[in-house]
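Worked example

This section walks through a single chain of length 217. The input is the sequence exactly as stored; nothing has been trimmed or padded.
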Amino acid sequence: MSSMTEKDPSLVELRNNIIQRVNVGDLLVRSAARAPDHLAVVDQDRRFSYGEFNRWVNRLAHGLIALGFRRGEALAIMSRNNAEFLAQYFACAKIGVVCVPVNLRWRREEIVYVLGHSEVRGIVVEGEFRADIEEVRARLDLLRHIVVLNCEPDRRRDTDIDFGSLAEGMADSEPECYVADRDPVSYLYTSGTTSAPKGVVGSHLAIYMGALGMALD
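Given that input, the structure is written out below as tokens.
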């Protein structure tokens, strides 16, 4: 009888990775397991427990996988500070997709540079900024998906994906994806006042340990 390793070594590697890895998304997983009914996120009049928020994040992660996003690819987020931004960040972390926040004060030339430099494959954008992305998209060959958030119908394009539909019908189970400790979880770009913005890479290990350090401080 063949062992599991002989059948598919990658399954064993994936299992060991999920158990032993250091992943920013697992901060949420552990909090949801420990205190699923405790309040986790407050966004104006909306309230999410750890369990609710983690299930939403998982559905978004599976939605990104369904769109074809894979480990190491980048997704930009052009949004104000809200629950959707945080949920998308954790969803990216869980599947090894790199989150690239877009500064809302950047000019279009700066947006084009950052999205091109980070080779983003998609962007989540709030409706009020949707027009800024139309010109940008025409100059970026790799930008495949535009996911719109809080966007009025008259501002959308036929190829846009509504943020709500990204998680619709998706499983809320934990995504099983290999992600290494030192894989990037984010690219944070500097202001670029004297030259082009520089991308600062944040790894899962660095962000995870930083969060633990703040919690214990």
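What to look for: Residues 74 and 98 are 4 Å apart (CA to CA).
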